[in-house]
Amino acid sequence: MFKLWTWCMNLIKFKKQESAEYIEFRKDNQDIKRLSITGLIMVKNQEENIVRTIDSIVPFCDSVIVVDTGSTDSTISKVANTFPDVIRKKLSWKENYGEMRNQCLKFVSNNSWVLFIDSDESLITKCSATELRAFLYKMDIDYPNVDKACTVKQIQPSRNAFVRPERFIKKTKTLYYYGHVHEEPRSKKQTSLLKIDTDMQVMNVGLTKNEYKKFNKDERYVRLLAKNLKDEPDNPRWVSLITPQFLKCGFISRESYIQLLKKCILKNANLDLDEYNLKQGVYLNDLLERLCLEMFFIKDIDKTEKYIKIARKIYPYAVFFQVLEATIFFSNIENKSEKRLKQIIEFTNNTSDEVIDNESEGNEEALNAVVVRLLIHMGKYDQAKEIYEAIDDSFIKDGLSNEAKLFK
Question: What pTM did the predictor assign?
Answer without folding.
Answer: 0.85
